[in-house]
Amino acid sequence: MSIQLDTTAVEKMKSFHCETKCTWCDGCGDYGIWTAIKRALSELGYSPWQVLLCYDVGCHGNMSDKLNGYRFHGLHGRVLPFAAGAKLANMNVPVIAHGGDGASFSEGVGHLVHSIRSQYPVTFILHNNANYGLTTGQASSLTWQGQPMNTNPNGMAEQTLPSMDFVFSLQPTFVARGFSGNIPQMVEILKAAIQHRGFAFVDMLQACPTYNHFATHEYLLSKCYDANAEGHDVKDFEKARYLATHNADRIATGILYQNEDIPNFYERLVPRQGKKTQAVDEVEKVDISELMKEFI
Amino acid sequence: MSRVSLKIVGASGQGINSVGEILAKGLKRAGYCVFGYREYPSLIKGGHASYQLDIESAHAIESSELQVHALITLNHHGLELNLQDLKENGIVVHQTPNWLLKPEEAALVRQRNIKLIELPVDSILARLGAKPILGNVLIAAYMWAVLGQDKELLKTMVGERFAKKKDLLELNMQCIEEGFAYADPAHGKLSIAVPEPRDIWKDHLLLRGSEAMGMGAVHAGVRLYAGYPMTPSSPLLTYIADVQNKTGMVIKQAEDEITAAQMVSGAMFMGTRALTATSGGGFDLMSETLSLNGITENPTVFVLAQRPGPATGLPTWTAQGDLMLAVHTAHGEFPRCVVSTSNAQDSFELMPIAFNIAEEFQMSVIVMTDKQIAEALYTQAPFDQEKTQVLRGSRLASEDQLPALKPTDRYDASAVDGVSLRWLPGQKAATFAGQGDEHTAAGSVDESAHNAVSQMEKRMRKHEALKATLPEPDIYGDADPNAPIDIVLVGWGSTKSVIIDVLRDPLFAGKRIDYVHYTYLWPLKTELLEKLAASGRKVLLIEGNFQAQLGKLIMQECGLKIPHHIVKYDGRPFFYDELRDALRTVITSDASSSRTVLETPVTHHP
Question: Does A86 touch chain B if contact means CB atoms closer than 8 Å?
Answer without folding.
Answer: yes
